[in-house]
């Protein structure tokens, strides 16, 4: 598969993830230059939505900033995962298309397990199709209309 990858820092964990992606035969799509975490999250999100990548992986200290930035790209469903069960569930029940991980909190072997659990879960649960479709902004919905409904 083609997997877009970006991280705002590098350590043993990010290196293990990149090595696992390449070692497992994935084509890795990476940004050409170093950027801050908001732009990196957006880069990966756009790569997935544009079809340059099948899935995305974002990493930053917490994993949260890149996840939030990726999720601002319409069509992106980025999920922060810290163990394989969460990663598998994000694919099965949320059809997550971007995996976010903390480069500070996950040991290299755990990050690789999480990555593989995510990428090795090919199809979401059909029973969740309605919920997954409902994640996207609904026709005519804006921040103002959504707030008004509460
Ligand atoms: O959510 C943000 C990330 O965890 C960043 O990796 C962290 O805040 C460090 O970012 P910076 O190097 O820009 O201070």
TrEMBL record:
One of its GO terms (biological process) is D-allose catabolic process. Keywords: Isomerase. Its EC number is 5.3.1.6. The keyword Isomerase applies. Belongs to the LacAB/RpiB family. The keyword Nucleus does not apply. InterPro entries: RpiB_LacA_LacB, RpiB_LacA_LacB_sf. This is Ribose 5-phosphate isomerase B. GO terms for molecular function: ribose-5-phosphate isomerase activity. It holds the Pfam family LacAB_rpiB.
């Amino acid at each position: 598969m083609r997997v877009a990858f970006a991280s705002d820092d590098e350590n043993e964990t990010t290196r293990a993830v990149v090595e696992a992606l390449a070692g497992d035969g994935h084509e890795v799509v990476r940004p050409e230059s170093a950027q801050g975490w908001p732009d990196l999250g957006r880069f990966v999100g756009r790569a997935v939505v544009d079809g340059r990548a099948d899935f995305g992986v974002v990493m930053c200290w917490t994993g949260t900033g890149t996840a939030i930035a990726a999720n601002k790209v319409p069509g992106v469903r980025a999920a922060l995962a810290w163990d394989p069960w969460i990663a598998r569930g994000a694919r099965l029940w949320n059809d997550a298309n971007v995996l976010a991980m903390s480069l500070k909190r996950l040991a290299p072997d755990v990050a690789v397990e999480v990555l593989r659990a995510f990428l090795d879960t090919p199809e979401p649960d059909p029973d969740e199709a309605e919920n997954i479709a409902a994640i996207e902004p609904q026709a005519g919905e804006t921040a103002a209309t959504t707030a008004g409904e509460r």
